[in-house]
Amino acid sequence: MHPALQPPRPIRELPDELISQIAAGEVVERPASVVRELVDNALDAGATQITVRLLAGGVRLISVEDNGVGIPAAELAIALKRHATSKIDSLHELESVGTMGFRGEALAAIHSVSELSLLSRTAQQDSAMLLDGRSGELQPVARAQGTTVEVKELFYSTPARRKFLKTDNTELAHCVESVRRHALTRPEVGFAIWHEGKLVEQWRAQQGDGALDRRLADVLGDDFVRDSVAVHYQSGHLTVVGRAGIPDAARARSDHQYAYVNGRYVRDKVMTHAARSAYEDVLHGQRQPVYALYLEIDPTRVDVNVHPTKIEVRFREGREVHQAIRHGVENALAIPRATRMGDGAAPLKGLSEGGAARNDSGLPVKDTMPAQHPSSPAWPNAHWQQAAMPLTGNRVNDLGQLWQPHARTPLMAQEDTARFAPATDTAGNLGPTPSDSLSSPSSASQGAAPSQGSGDSALPDGTWPLGKALAQLHGIYILAENTQGLVLVDMHAAHERIVYEQLKQQMDVQAMASQPLLIPATFHATAQEVATAEACAEALLELGLEMSALSAKTLAVRAVPSSLAQGDAVALARSVLAELQQHDASTVVQRARNELLATMACHGAVRANRRLTLDEMNGLLRQMEVTERSDQCNHGRPTWRQLSVRELDALFLRGR
Ligand SMILES: Nc1ncnc2c1ncn2[C@@H]1O[C@H](COP(=O)(O)OP(=O)(O)O)[C@@H](O)[C@H]1O
Ligand SMILES: [Mg+2]
User: Fold this and answer.
1) What does pTM read for this prediction?
2) For 189-218, what is each residue's pLDDT tens digit?
3) Residues with a CB atom less than 6 Å from ligand 1
4) Measured in whole angstroms, how far is the alpha carbon of residue 527 from the centre of its chain?
């Protein structure tokens, strides 16, 4: 007989232990969950040193030892009770909780599925007291101030659970990861992890300036810090700090993505999506960025009591959080690497990593690369202001008009010479320009920027971050010399990015120009497409797309972006509608716009096999130095590589 058909039993309250065991099912999934809860407690107790000892991946023993405030002897037994906590005592406090724990169920849950003992001493006690969780016996033992929680034989009473556990090594790896998540947010606390009597990890307490960076290097490796940029962003009550990996450091897996809310490690869709979208424009394919991002937010604007393990949170204003993370990371990534590193030259004041993407007022600067540049003589690019480039049209054929090096001094702007010659295949009407009318910023200017061979240069050629052009290789690469050695530039990829960024900037000022179709393109649409077209008419117009419904199932495209007038209007309309359905209109406008501009930029960029003069090559290098995101082409591939003299020496076995 089906159990549901049995005569009902009377309703009874479940015994406490069973309730805890049920709760344990949510809180304690594997040894790593116990480690997480116990380390949470140690941190809440103000510990500065936490030692985790494990046997058999934590299944046989998990012991977490801290030097925190301790638990008074009289409270040891209460600590093991369900819903017993010292951390909140009102709903009001729950709403602004600042501790890791507050539910008062971890110890009770763990206790119900293991053999647990609590050993603790407060500052007021002469000796420590040990509580045997099973017998309830208390006895004095020797110990300094702090607490040790010992958890033995996890899931001994629930063999079904135990069967789900993986090998010891896998469980150990999860335990280490669990401590790592804490270590990355509390650099001032020292951590040690032992397994089977061997020290597995040790992260020493870090104090003072750069403590977080040192901890990040200890835990995630020197590479992580070297190949990442500092994030510093503030908007209203939100602050985002941390480090975001450069696109080159992205991995196949998303295992180096750490996000924190008020010091709590979380897996949050809004944050993950925001971080990923910051890489949209620079990351190739399915690669996963690496980052450690710390969001500080007014605790009353985030609900941490959503999930028993508190790994999920709910934001009151998710959109603001999304924007803060996205802009914070985007701004940090925008600065070209060569200029950021300073190429070993005088440090670029104001462009140092901590100062990246902020202006004097400390507020984030958006998409205003030149404004971020210090006017320090150590870096002459600073004098170059992005010349206002009037958008005279935005058909692909007009792109040549945009190609004037945007890094020009006002002086240079008066001259009409500094033009980076357009490729003949996209602006055929212009034809090859005589090379003497082409100039790079460095040679076109008099005095403002050093020119090759000009005596008054404040800066020798070698100190340009991307160096001085030497030659062109196979019509594809530019070779340049800088203080570190050889720079190799993929000419088309680099120029494509420059044109793309220029187009984006122009488009920020003016709306996308649109061109009416002589004969509207009609197509059979779904009810949802029709609804979206009507609801988002305004967003579509911004993109240069005009659509109207001819019937409940037919849409007509009446105008398309001028630059894409030759394309398939229906395919364009469909893909934009599909995007609009999924996301909110503003991000689609942004993304679709960028995609359109990228297509235009690709057509507009200098083609392979076009011979460039040295001046043109230098012009391109100087543009790269002042163009946001110029380290990656529009498809996320690198645009340049550095080969240091040391690497070259190694190639030739010099000095061996
Ligand atoms: N390592 C520790 N040091 C000091 N107090 C502790 C420690 N671990 C647990 N406690 C005390 O035991 C209580 C219950 O812990 P727990 O079950 O994890 O619930 P919560 O952390 O949600 O309060 C805590 O509120 C705290 O007072
Ligand atoms: Mg707790």
Assistant:
1) 0.71
2) 999 999 999 999 999 999 999 999 999 999
3) 37, 41-42, 45, 66, 68-71, 79, 84-87, 101-108, 147
4) 37
